[in-house]
Write a structure and sequence with these properties.
Shape: globular
Number of helices: 14
Bound molecules: 6-O-phosphono-beta-D-glucopyranose
Strand content: 15-25%
Distance between the termini: 42 Å
């Protein structure tokens, strides 16, 4: 797995002047540079830049804390490139070969596609035609989401990419897989017998996975209005968290064994009829409201560049069942949305209550035991237990044992890209999604979208700053459960 570790590499950064590169990728590369990863970068985008003006764009995108920033920046080169012009790729090959020799990069190449998805296929084809993928070193294609917009389009994209790259060379990014506490789920589960021994339908009553945001649609109106929360968040990030929480321990801790176990979870998700989609999946859209910082914000339909009659969902709450031996009958609830009360991602595992035998059981008001995995902004874990109050009443009270990595101050977003890019340099694709994971997830989403298209599921409105529409609470109430408050809003 580590055979390519710290090998010098040429990074061809498509979308080099774009938002993601400037917000996350250059800072991540700077971190890797400080960790002694050797590389040179060719920035590629349509707009004109010289090497120098591009270096100044990169410099403006990072927070330098060392003196050798100059050496770091000197490794950045720029070539204006129009994906639709194959000739641009011919000159790119020439520049790549030159830089390869200058820095002794051994022909190792990362092609990072931080591009509009409509260019993914053409970029790969033109790379091949110009001979850029015909290299003596290794080559990895890193591809940002969305990977297709439904199963047929994702399948087509995958086939196109497989004409140029092998599956093992394709690194499909799901940046949630780079988050510290998402990566920690396996350690928590498989390195702690007290959790693993009760991690099943006999002891767990339900699992709740929430990823809430306070931001609205921002400047991504065009993309978002055609995508919505289901495809933007559930298809990828939420389903990956479901898979990691539910999967069996892999036979060996290696890339393909772990991915195989995740795929088994996807395969076991109970298919849903039109009726169950209507009753188990809530779609919501925010109206105007007041956020927790007191700011008054517009409703989704009043946002710039959003159709005033748009029916796109900005919130989804769903109930899934995983029909295997471990999870039989345990609901997995997922919930995500924009303009909610807090920016927070958490996994709450609720344990079953102790049987209430009246002759034996005399404690009143006992709360369920909860294990909360705090993904962000806190990174940590809390365990909610009951103890006797420290008085004569004999009543119980809830307590919380908490571990926090105290990351309130750390930039959890950039950290994810450091880990993922580092894996990509090393040739470790464990924390990237394999094609079959993506395909199963799309097939589930397609079945939901098909029912939504027939207008069978109402769009429920929620006030900005709230935790979603009332129907989301009813979804759990019908099963005798409730959403546990996010730790950040308790
Ligand atoms: C992206 C979605 O994949 O994830 C965005 O496209 C969303 O709409 C973002 O805001 C959330 O990521 P994070 O790391 O801020 O939770």
């Amino acid at each position: 797995m580590d055979e390519t570790q710290k090998q010098p590499t040429l990074v061809l950064m498509f979308g080099a002047t774009g938002d993601l590169a400037r917000r996350k990728l250059y800072q991540a590369l700077y971190q890797l540079y400080k960790n002694n990863q050797e590389f040179a970068v060719i920035g590629l985008a349509r707009r004109p830049h010289t090497h120098l003006s591009f270096r100044s764009l990169v410099s403006d995108s990072i927070t330098p804390d060392e003196e050798h920033i100059g050496d770091f920046l000197n490794r950045f080169y720029y070539q204006p490139l129009d994906i639709e012009q194959p000739e641009s790729f011919v000159s790119l090959k020439k520049l790549s070969d030159e830089i390869d020799i200058r820095y002794h990069l051994g022909g190792n190449r990362i092609f990072y596609l931080s591009l509009a998805p409509r260019f993914f296929t053409l970029a790969a084809q033109n790379l091949k035609r110009a001979g850029l993928t015909d290299t003596v070193g290794w080559k990895h294609l890193v591809i940002e989401k969305p990977f297709g917009h439904d199963l047929p389009s994702a399948t087509k994209l995958n086939e196109d990419l497989l004409d140029v790259f092998d599956e093992k060379e394709i690194y499909r990014i799901d940046h949630y897989l780079g988050k510290e506490m998402v990566q920690n789920i396996e350690a928590l589960r498989f390195a702690n017998p007290i959790f693993e021994s009760v991690w099943n339908h006999r002891h767990i009553s339900n699992v709740q996975i929430t990823s809430s945001e306070t931001l609205g649609v921002g400047e991504r109106a065009n993309y978002y209005d055609q995508t919505g929360a289901l495809l933007d968040m559930v298809q990828n990030h939420m389903m990956q968290m479901v898979a990691l929480t539910a999967m069996e321990p892999p036979g060996r801790f290696d890339t393909e064994d772990i991915r195989d176990e995740k795929v088994k979870v996807f395969k076991s998700i109970r298919p849903m009829s039109a009726e169950s989609i209507s009753s188990q999946i809530v779609r919501g859209q925010y109206t105007s409201g007041v956020l927790s910082d007191g700011s008054v914000v517009k409703g989704y339909r009043d946002e710039d560049n959003i159709d005033s009659k748009s029916n796109t969902e900005t919130f989804v709450a769903a109930r899934f069942y995983i029909d295997n031996y471990r999870w039989s009958g345990v609901p997995f609830y997922v919930r995500t949305g924009k303009r909610m009360t807090a920016k927070s991602t958490e996994i709450v595992v609720q344990f079953k209550d102790i049987p209430k035998n009246p002759y034996f059981y005399h404690f009143e008001d006992v709360k369920p035991n909860l294990l909360v995995i705090h993904i962000q902004p806190d990174e940590g874990l809390s365990l909610k237990l009951n103890v006797k109050q420290f008085n004569e009443t004999g009543n119980t009270m809830p307590i919380s044992m908490k571990f926090s990595n105290n990351s309130g101050t750390s930039d959890y977003g950039a950290g994810a890209y450091v880990r993922l890019l580092s894996d990509c340099f090393k040739g470790d694709s464990t924390n990237f999604t394999r094609w079959d994971e993506v395909a199963y997830s799309w097939s589930l989403m397609d079945s939901i979208v098909a029912v939504w298209k027939e207008n069978k599921v109402p769009l429920d409105f929620y006030e900005a700053g709230s935790m979603g529409p009332a129907s989301s609470d009813q979804l759990l109430a019908r099963d005798g459960f409730r959403w546990w408050p996010l730790t950040s809003t308790e």
